[in-house]
Amino acid sequence: MVSWFAVDNSYTVKALYRLGFSWPVISADYLEKSIEALTTPGFFDD
Fold first, then answer.
1. 1-46 pLDDT, tens digit each
2. Where is 34: in which H helix or E strand?
3. pLDDT for position 16
4. CA nearest 28: which of 39, 20, 38, 36?
5. End-to-end CA, the chain
6. What CA–CA distance (Å, rounded) separates 46 from 38?
7. Closest CA to 43 of 32, 35, 29, 27
8. Looking at residue 40, what DSSP letter applies?
9. Cα 46 off chain centre by
10. How far apart are CA 18 and CA 29, in angstroms?
């Protein structure tokens, strides 16, 4: 059985932003490199 529920991280994001943390907009290049890293042999090995 699958259950869905709403998640809201806006409070945490705002608090981190006030502390100087920010994240760039995710690009297609970033996604491609991330997926490539995940499919690299041994990525999930201990």
1. 889 989 999 999 999 999 999 888 999 999 999 999 888 888 778 6
2. helix 28-38
3. 95
4. 36
5. 30
6. 14
7. 35
8. S
9. 21
10. 28
d(CA 24, CA 27): 9
The amino acid at residue 34 is S
CB 14 within 8 A of CB 21: no
- The encoded tokens of residue 36 equal 């490539």
Q: Determine the pLDDT at residue 46.
A: 66
> Residue 43 contacts by C-beta under 8 Å, 6 or more apart in sequence?
37
Distances (CA, A) of 29 to 2, 16, 43: 32, 25, 19
